Amino acid sequence: MVKTILDNFCVKSGILCSKCEEKLRRGLVTELDLKIIKILSELEKENPILQDVSFHKSAEVGNTLAILVDKRDISKMLSYGGKILRAIGEKTGKRIKILGYGGDAREFLEELFNPFSILAINTIWLPDGSTETKVILSGRSPRRMPVDFDVIRKLAKEIRGLTLRIEFEKA
Predict the structure, then answer these.
(1) What's the structural domain count of the chain?
(2) H-helix or E-strand containing 124?
(3) How high is the pLDDT of residue 97?
(4) Same-domain pairing of 34 and 13
(5) Burial degree of 58 (CB within 10 A; 0-12, 13-18, 19+)
(6) Same structural domain, 112 and 164
(7) Domain-located, residue 63
């Protein structure tokens, strides 16, 4: 069974007990999380490798769905030649991005910006007391972007509370 903060019975039945209902009310779990947990539980029947996956959170921005799992579980989610990701994408109608839960900001940003290489990450302190994270990517800005930077900015803000400034620099 996919590991979550919810009880296994609640996940299987689709009916939340009072403890799990309280987690939903407090915002520890969202409706989107419930939907993704249910999809992963269904996919577990054809893909037994999902039984050991620890799901933490999901975030949706536009046409992209980010799923946060334990770092050690990223390879499991990407296994079977991407079959699991395609199945989740078909069920949700979204592009899927698998990210590691926890770790430092650099690891998170490297996963988020994949396939780009990050040269540097700097913190910019603004006069109003807020901060921005400046990410400098290697090379020139390609004509056809493999990733949407607006989606990346919104995901970084929603998941980690980071405000990003993205630049390219020739190596």
Answers:
(1) 2
(2) strand 118-125
(3) 92
(4) yes
(5) buried
(6) yes
(7) yes
